[in-house]
Design goal:
By secondary structure, the chain is an alpha+beta fold. 48% of the residues lie in helices and 14% in strands. The chain has 8 helices and 5 strands. Strands 1-2-3-4-5 form a 5-stranded antiparallel beta sheet. Helix 4 packs antiparallel against helix 5 and helix 5 packs antiparallel against helix 6. The protein is elongated and about 65 Å long. It starts with 6 loop residues before the first helix and ends in a 6-residue tail after the last helix. The relative contact order is 0.10.
């Protein structure tokens, strides 16, 4: 119960309750006060506020990973409450730099296609980082993903088997999260799936992302965001 916690602690953490960002997600804190994770599904980076104490002012027990630019280990310790915002900002800036730095671990082709697809979604909602799609939008997107998942194996070869398995894994994860994640998270991950499909070649592009099908999803989602129209009908 919040009335078992000093008001100064609640006021210090208040902005983090509904805080959203491109690189991170605030999730259920469980036994902690605040729990933030990297949105990258392959990352184990986090920023946790575990506990508090009143000792010459407010002190917060903060555990974050990565610790710094020089280390991917975590850093855990008691910090002054008035330094929380700067510590969190430094952690977010590390995530941003990871996202923009070029490395041999990146696939520039997939990245380029994903950026192209994502840019075609004109998400104008102020709450796109917070709220999910409505149920009708979710069903439309799920139908599209299900169609890909059911039919993509007819293009399977020994050469592309691993890539198709990766696409199907991404589709399963996206379908599982259609009702749990924000609009922007959904579109970003959908764009990555489309990018991976596109990289497989023109037969995949024609079968799963023909201009007509792509326009239905792209314009449909954009229109539904703006108008709330039921395109399933």
């Amino acid at each position: 119960m919040k009335k078992k916690i000093p008001l100064i602690v609640l006021e210090t953490l208040e902005k983090y309750v509904e805080l959203r960002g491109e690189q991170f997600e605030v999730i259920s804190p469980e036994k902690f006060l605040v729990k933030v994770i990297d949105k990258d599904k392959d990352s184990d980076f986090y920023f946790n506020i575990e506990d508090y104490k009143m000792e010459n002012g407010l002190k917060l027990l903060i555990d974050c990973k990565p610790a710094s630019k020089e280390s991917i280990s975590n850093n855990r310790g008691w910090r002054d409450g008035n330094k929380l915002d700067s510590l969190f900002s430094n952690w977010v800036n590390l995530l941003k730099r990871y996202e923009t730095v070029n490395s041999f671990f990146d696939d520039p082709i997939i990245k380029s296609f994903a950026e192209e697809y994502f840019s075609e979604f004109e998400i104008i909602d102020e709450d796109a980082d917070k709220k999910p799609f409505n149920t009708k939008q979710i069903l439309l997107l799920d139908e599209h993903l299900e169609s890909i998942e059911k039919n993509i194996d007819k293009f399977r070869t020994e050469k592309n088997a691993n890539q198709l398995d990766s696409i199907k894994k991404d589709i399963n994860e996206l379908r599982d999260n259609l009702t749990l994640k924000s609009k922007k998270w959904i579109i970003k991950n959908l764009s990555t799936i489309w990018a991976k499909i596109t990289k497989q070649g023109t037969p995949f592009l024609k079968e799963f992302l023909s201009e007509a099908k792509k326009a239905i999803i792209r314009e449909g989602v954009k229109f539904m965001i703006e108008q709330g129209s039921n395109l399933l009908n």
